[in-house]
């Protein structure tokens, strides 16, 4: 079992992405229940991911497996699947990798920042371009964004 321990924030200055190259992701959600089932495609790679219900505001179990891209794309097109597209940028800051997501389609103009941690009590020095914390706010997780679009403020 792997644990995903992360915090999520709004990005306050999209200009920090100027000149950076990101990676395009398609994320489709296939099922919600005892676990959340997601398929992700980035370039010539794809993964099937299962996520447990949250164990805390920052932590849940996560299992991820590489799968063929063609299979992932076929899964993403299944009736009932819902998806989002985004470009992810990786920015190193004071010993942590910050993942900045710029969303596309109906979420155009939305930017978020995630940082994964080794433990819940890990101290993370936030850069000045990281704003309001969204950790644990249901409308802001990627599954909710894919299903419902922009969250209420």
Automatic annotation (TrEMBL):
InterPro entries: CYTH-like_dom_sf, CYTH_domain, NeuTTM/CthTTM-like
Species annotation: Curvibacter cyanobacteriorum
Highest taxon of source: Bacteria
PANTHER family given in the database record: SLR0698 PROTEIN
Record SMART domains: CYTH (SM01118)
CYTH domain ranges (all copies): 2-153
Annotated Pfam families: CYTH (PF01928)
Protein name (record): CYTH domain-containing protein
């Amino acid at each position: 079992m792997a644990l995903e321990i992360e915090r999520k924030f709004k990005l306050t200055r999209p200009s920090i992405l100027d000149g950076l190259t990101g990676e395009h992701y398609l994320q489709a959600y296939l099922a919600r229940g005892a676990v959340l089932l997601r398929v992700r495609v980035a370039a010539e790679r794809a993964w099937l991911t299962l996520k447990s219900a949250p164990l805390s505001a920052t932590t849940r179990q996560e299992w991820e497996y590489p799968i063929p891209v063609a299979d992932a794309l076929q899964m993403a097109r299944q009736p009932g699947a819902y998806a989002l597209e985004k470009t992810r940028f990786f920015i190193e800051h004071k010993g942590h990798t910050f993942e900045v997501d710029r969303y596309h389609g109906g979420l155009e103009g939305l930017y978020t920042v995630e940082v994964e941690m080794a433990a819940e009590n890990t101290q993370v020095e936030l850069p000045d371009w990281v704003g309001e914390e969204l950790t644990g706010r249901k409308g802001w997780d990627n599954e909710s964004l894919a299903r419902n679009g922009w969250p209420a403020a």
